[in-house]
Specification:
The chain is mainly α and about 210 residues long. It has helices at about 1-35, 55-60, 65-75, 85-95, 105-125, 130-145, 155-170, 175-185, 195-205, and strands at about 40-45, 45-50. Helices cover about 65% and strands about 5% of the residues. The relative contact order is 0.10.
Length: about 210
């Protein structure tokens, strides 16, 4: 078991270091810019979020807009007109038992772990058709893509990405049970998950 883990670390060491460096870079500059953000109310969906101190604003930076609603669903269930897909808030609620009831920490833990695992799966998937260097460059470009900002916040995108890529990776290995299960979970995370049926069907028929 230890030998297998060591072998996996050797294979994915460079992508792992790349992920840590890029994520640390973005986190560093986010915190560097933090003192420049004025403490004033933020408005979303007719709701005003007031901050009495800068630490409250820091928490909101990583859970903006929909993030607050996901945390509310994880804590209290569906009690408002906002109805998001259930897997992400359910996962936050479950993981909060590990984080001593801290939903915020649970959500960030899910987001960052999903981002890392999804990134490594993407590298593995690309290596099936391209060289190691090409796969790593594609992964770096993906991490630098402006939309990847949501992979560091309390949003379901990182979890959805991880499940989607995992489903495609399993399909390429002809592990259809795992592929189908991950695709189903992806569809419980974001409505676009149903579209995974298209590449999976194509891969199955090929």
């Amino acid at each position: 078991m230890i030998g297998k883990l060591r072998s996996l670390f050797t294979v994915y060491r460079q992508p792992l270091i790349t992920w840590v460096v890029i994520k640390s870079f973005f986190l560093f500059f986010s915190l560097l810019a933090f003192p420049l953000i004025p403490i004033e109310p933020m408005f979303y969906a007719d709701q005003a979020f007031h901050f009495e101190q800068r630490s409250d604003l820091l928490e909101h930076i990583f859970s903006p807009f929909d993030g607050q609603i996901y945390l509310s669903i994880a804590a209290h269930g569906y009690t408002s007109e906002f109805v998001f897909f259930p897997l992400y808030p359910l996962a936050i609620h479950v993981v909060s038992f590990v984080t001593a009831g801290n939903l915020y920490a649970a959500a960030l833990l899910i987001t960052y772990l999903s981002s890392l695992i999804g990134f490594l799966l993407l590298i593995g998937l690309l290596r099936k058709d391209f060289s190691k260097a090409v796969a790593l460059r594609a992964g770096i470009l993906f991490l630098l893509f402006p939309g990847s900002l949501f992979f560091s916040a309390i949003y379901p995108e990182a979890l959805f990405f991880c499940l989607s890529v995992g489903s495609l990776y399993a399909a390429r290995r002809s592990n259809w049970l795992v592929s189908g299960a991950l695709a189903f979970l992806a569809a419980l995370t974001r409505p676009q998950g149903i579209l995974l049926a298209i590449p999976l069907l194509f891969e199955y028929r090929s």
